UniProtKB/TrEMBL annotation:
InterPro entries: Glutaredoxin (IPR002109), GRX_PICOT-like (IPR033658), Monothiol_GRX (IPR014434), Monothiol_GRX-rel (IPR004480), Thioredoxin-like_sf (IPR036249). Residues 18-82 form the Glutaredoxin domain. PROSITE patterns: GLUTAREDOXIN_2. [2Fe-2S] cluster binds at C31. Coiled coil: none annotated. It comes from Sphingomonas gilva. Belongs to the glutaredoxin family. Monothiol subfamily. GO terms for molecular function: 2 iron, 2 sulfur cluster binding; disulfide oxidoreductase activity; metal ion binding. This is Glutaredoxin. Keywords: 2Fe-2S, Iron, Iron-sulfur, Metal-binding, Redox-active center. CDD domains: GRX_PICOT_like (cd03028). It comes from the Bacteria.
Amino acid sequence: MTEDPQARIGELVANNDVLLFMKGSPLFPQCGFSSRAVAILDHLGVSYESVDVLQDQGIRQGIKQFSDWPTIPQLYVKGEFVGGSDIMMEMYEAGELAQLLEQHGLAKAG
């Protein structure tokens, strides 16, 4: 793995179908927004990987430039930036997030 944060972020995004950059971990989210993002993904039953930005200052700052999005958490699906927790919540409530995951064959069966 390379030391350049942008390259590392690019590798992580490319190698994980559903990836959440968050503060903390899914078991111990370190902010309310990250907690809400985890709750949404868990409720949808999708498997995902997470990156704790608090563990790596380069990624914590780099992800904001990578996506051109100022806040964390950030959700990526199949290499595409989806949004932060507010966008996730809006998409979830409208059924759009489940639809996006289904389109990529990532949603929970049944």
